[in-house]
Amino acid sequence: MQPASPSKLQGLDDLLRRALAGDERAYRAFLTDAATIVRRFAAQRMPRHSAGFDLEDLVQEILLAVHAKRHTWRPGEPVGPWLFAIARYKAIDAYRRRGKRIEIDIAGMGDVFEDPAGAPTAIAQDVSRAVASLGGRQRAVVSALSVEGKSISQTARELDMSEGAVRVAFHRGLSAIARKFGRD
Amino acid sequence: MQTDQLIADLASQATRPKNQFTLPLWLAVALAPFVALAVFMPMLGPRANFVASLATVRFDMKFVVTGLLAVTALALLAALARPARPVAYRLKWLALPTLMLLAAVVVELLVVPEAAWAERAVGQNARNCLIAIPTMGAPVLALFLYALSDQAPTRPALSGAVAGLAAAGISAIFYAAHCPDDSPLFVAVWYPLATAILVVGGAGVGSRLLRW
Which of B96, B65, B101, B95 is nearest to B176 (CA)? Predict the structure, then answer.
């Protein structure tokens, strides 16, 4: 656990404290620094050139988790261990999912490839099943963006959300689907 | 999506939405006795000689053991709820109620003739105990799991199990006020069995519900 100098981690404490008080610029700086630290952490720990694993995906998942759980950090506690605990948790999570994918037996895949006509229907079905598994806003956003093909600004207007919120909901929705169905 | 873009989007949501209802863990802990009480009063209620019994050591010992279990398990739960909180130290405190109960058992074995041991251990209310503690503990466990789901436990199954342990501790305090079997031998046999039901249930639900 020495990916960043102590002074940098101390700076993080201050940034996150200001961010939780509502300072957007501090929050952006915090997330940018956190992304760098977490990327280094992930690169050290995860096998890099393996199929089905994308380092940047993991970094983004960790950032989303940090964002969703930022209220579990309390001012006065060091940010470093908190951040690494979250990164480790999400890395293990990603690793498990990858492990599960590797176990999939490809012996039966021949049938799938021999019948290309059957593929589109199956995919359409999968998509609607995946979107239906989401709830509330995520579902509306994912369905508007990926199924109906609307733009982000249009979706934001229709759902009365900010564009940033639409993008976050979209990203979360996709992550949730990936978690549930495994992703390729 | 690019990471930079994601950061920009997340940064624009620095303040947590206020309209979202969340249950802080401390509030769940404060509510827990009332939840257990709400099940306890109509279902069992304190035994008739409750006040008079307070003068007997065996009766009081039940509250010491169950109370210590509730407090130490809750302290551990609070540490498990958030990332990177030190857990090992609080885990050791769980030995306190255990040792207390074992000490009471040893004393009981010394003061009670051997012929009466089995009768005291089996008691009259084994079945009630196995039903009542999990029944009162289940809504408390649900309350704890709900509060935990807004926290960030990095060990979902363990956190669920400890939530079950804490719920059992609180539930057992109430059950102890009802049950006429006061012998530490009875407590040492049946209370842990009833507790195990909640611990296993908590671990099972926690490993699914508490993932984030």
Answer: B65
Q: What's the gap in Å between the CA of B207 and the closest CA on chain A?
A: 13
From chain B, pick out residues whose CB is under 8 angstroms from the CB of A160: none
- Within this chain, do residues A128 and A83 fall inside the same structural domain, yes or no? no
Interface test with B, best of A15, A31, A141 (most B CBs within 10 A): A31
Range of the domain at A72: 6-101
- Could you read off the pLDDT of B129-173 as tens digits, one per residue? 999 999 999 999 999 999 999 999 999 999 999 999 999 999 999
Question: Do A63 and A91 share a structural domain?
Answer: yes
Give the pLDDT of residue B81: 96
Assign residue A37 the CATH number of its domain.
Answer: 1.10.1740.10
Same domain, A87 and A123: no
B114 burial via Cβ count (<10 Å: 0-12, 13-18, 19+): exposed
**0.95 surpassed by complex ipTM:** no
Cβ-based neighbour number of residue A24 at 10 Å: 16
Q: Which residues in chain A are closer than 8 Å to B1, comparing Cβ atoms? A: 60, 167, 170-171
The verdict on residue A113 lying in a domain is: no
Which residue in B6, B10, B151 is closest to A72 by CB distance?
A: B151
- Report which of A175, A179, A125, A103 is spatially closest to residue B6, judged by C-alpha positions: A175
Look at chain A and report how many structural domains it folds into.
2
Which residue matches tokens 């940090």?
A66
Mutate which: A69, A93, A142, vs B, most B CBs within 10 A? A69
- Based on the fold, state whether residues A176 and A97 are members of the same structural domain: no
Asked whether the beta carbons of residue B14 and residue A81 sit closer than 8 angstroms, the reply is no
The overall average pLDDT reported for chain B is 94
Range B69-95 average pLDDT: 95
Distance CA B78, CA B87 (A): 9
Using a CB-CB cut-off of 8 Å, the residues of chain A touching B82 are 72-74, 82
Q: Which residue has the higher pLDDT, A168 or B161?
A: B161
Contact check, Cβ <8 Å, B6/A167: yes
